[in-house]
Structures are given as C-alpha cells and as structure tokens.
Amino acid sequence: MDKTWLVAKETYRREVKNWSFLLMIFAPFLVLLISFFFGMSSSSAFDSDTKVGIVSQNQSIVQPLKKTEDFDGYKNKAKAEKAYKDGDISGYIVVKETSTQLVANYYGTESLDNDVKTELIRVLNTQQQALNLKNAKLSEQQMQSLSQKVKFTEKTNDKKLNASDEKNLKTATFWILIFVLYFLVQTYSTIMAQDIASEKGTKIMEMIFSSMPGGKYFDGKVLGIFLEILTQLLIYAVMFSGFYYMAPHIDGVKDTFAQIKPAIDQALGQIISWGLLFVVLGLILYIVYAAVCGAIVTKAEDANKAVQPLVYLTLLGLFSSMSLSNNPDGIFAMIMSYIPFLSSFLMPLRLIKGNATGLEAAISLVILFVFLLGSIWWIRKIYPSLILQTDDNGMWKNMKRALQGMKE
User: Fold this and answer.
1) The pTM is what?
2) What does the pLDDT look like over 197-208, one tens digit per residue?
3) Which of 25, 157, 177, 299 has the fewest other C-beta atoms within 10 Å?
C-alpha cells in the first residue's frame, strides 16, 4: 500500500506542477476577468460619449440631472452649443418654462440614449406636476387627497419552490452534472492516456515491476489522476464559496444575488442525488479505460488517437441525453440507461423526468458498479503485459498479446 501511495503522490506532483494544469484551471476565470474589464472600459467610454448638456434656470431640474453623471449644466444655450461643437458633450437640451408648461428641446446628431431620455423625462414630469398643482390652486385637503399613495405589502416564501420551478431546477442541475462529467472525461482521459503512454516500454518500468506488482502500480496511477481531479474541483468549490459569501456585500451584485440565492441553495441540495453517484462512477470508469488506451500504444503521441473510442462514447452519451430528453420513456432511453458508459448520462435524466423509479436507478447503479469492479480487476491483470510491450504491432494486436499473456 505504501508503494501505491508513493506512485500516486509522484503522479499527482508531476501533473499538478505542470503549467498546463494551472492554465486549465484559471483560463476560464482569466477570460471572464478580461471580458469584464473590457466591458467596463466600453461602458465608461459609452457613458462619456452620451453625456449631454442641460440648459435651464430652474435648479430643481438641473441638480437632480447632474447627480446622474449623464448631464452637464450650462447657464445659457450659447455655452452649451460651444461645448457641443468642441466635442465635450454629445448634445444639449434647452428647457424653457412658461406659466403653465415646461418645453424641452434637444439638439444633437444622434437620438438620446433610452436610459438618459427616461431619466430626463422623469425629472421633467416631476417638475411639470409641481407646476400643475401650483396652477390648480387646490385647498390643503385636496392636496392631501392627491398625495395619497397605494399601500403595498409583499409576502414571499423563499424556502419552497412550486412543483414546476423545482422540476426545472432539477433539470438544470442534471445538465450541470452531465456537462461536468463530459468535460472532465474529455480532459482527464487524455491526460491519463498520455501519462501512461509516456512511460511505456522504458527500462524504469521493468525495474518498478520487479519491485512491486503491476496492479498496484496501476492503482497508484489512477489514484494520482483522481487526486488531480479533486484538486481542480476543490479550487472551484473554494472560489464559488468565496463568491457566495462575498456577493451579499458587493454593490451592484448583492441585489441580483439576493434574487437568485434561493435557486442556488436549492440547486446545491439537488447535487447530492442519484445523479452525483452516476457521475462519479462514470468518471472513474472512463479514467480506468483511458489507462488501457494509453498502455496499448507504443508512442506517447499516439495517445490522443487511442483515446478516441472513449471520446465517442462520451459524445454518444451526451447527445443521446439531449435528443432523448423529450422522450425519456422510449425503448432506446430505457436500454441505454442500464448500459455502463451510457447509464451515467441517461438514468439521471429518466429519474428527473419521472420515468424511472428508485429501484430501477439502484439496479442500474449496481450494474455500473459491478462492471467497474470487474474492469479494474481485469485491467490490473493485463496492465503489466501491456505496459512492457514495445513492438509497434498496432493497438489491437498489442491488446490480443496482453490477453494471451494473462491466460498463460
């Protein structure tokens, strides 16, 4: 067992210290940050371009508009027109006030931005209403009647969702798990195959197998890759936790986060389900067979080609779950939900849609688990024969020779 852990630790250390591992983890966040900063820069540039002048002697109009940072106040039309010609503002508005009405005229090459226009109209309507009340000469009682506001109360229950919302949330959680499985398999099956292929046929492997069983060495390689996967998931979990607890205190984010927090909480609860068990076992199964793919080639550069059957299987599972999502009770969906490699994609879908019972899911899970144990037992037996072969006879001939060696 100590030697198995030693192999696992060495595999883990070599993979995690690789720059490609760090790039794989942080590249999505770098893209998001770059997009965010570009968006902020574009927004700032756009805001400066849409700044308009406001010409009015009424400070009740000018001051509220200047606070929005979309307007600049000018004392007269001539100064506003000069600023417009100099390019300091994109246009200007002249507000004239008669005894009964406000009149606003905009001058510019392009129409006002909708947000800027909405804010302008809101302030002007407030002042027009005040002018209307002044001219109406209403009594104090009439003024109080006009100022009466609607009474509004809101009662919500954030802890529970209705049946439709809960079903949609389960479906969304399922797709999250499925895409996580797909991308992890696509990434780490190639890493596993390349790692195994790079060691194939070396003198070091002969020395290692003379000091420890090949099966235990295989266990250490698989365990090391899984520690790498857990490291990546743990980093993402820490980042998500940091955002989850910091978001309520960040201006501009906390309001939106407060609205979606109940759904996030429900989704986190849904992740601990049948779907997670199928995803974990399915991922182990794919990684184990990726080791075989790496062992049957003679050159490390052929590892990508050898792992293609697993890539096609994941694509089949993904596209089958997508195409059969509207018909999960069909014969094809039912059959594939019991087949290892595919059951991780189809059985959770049937459970969410209500087309499979807990008993059926348990049977499928047992089949997957037994197949996984049988595969590990079989691969541990043929692994030494595969890894020590150096003849370039092709993948299938190498596999045949390994099976013959196992029988002997």
Assistant:
1) 0.65
2) 887 756 677 677
3) 157
| Domain interval for residue 81 | 50-143
- How far apart, in Å, are the Cα atoms of 90 and each of 13, 77, 122, 141, 146? 58, 14, 20, 46, 39
What is the dihedral sign for C-alpha 206, 212, 215, 221? Answer: negative
Nearest to 26 by CA among 176, 231, 179, 173: 231
Q: Report if residue 15 sits inside a domain.
A: no
Q: Are 123 and 247 in the same domain?
A: no
- Distance (Å, whole) CA 232 – CA 226: 10
Residues 6+ apart with CB under 8 A from 106: 52, 91, 92, 93, 112
CATH of the domain at 135: 3.40.190.10
Q: Are 329 and 192 contained in the same domain?
A: yes
Q: What is the pLDDT of residues 80-103, one digit of tens each?
A: 888 888 888 888 889 888 878 888
The pair phi, psi for residue 213, each rounded to 5°, is: -60, 145
Alpha-carbon span 379 to 295, nearest angstrom: 10
DSSP 213: -
Contact 286, 310 (CB under 8 A): yes
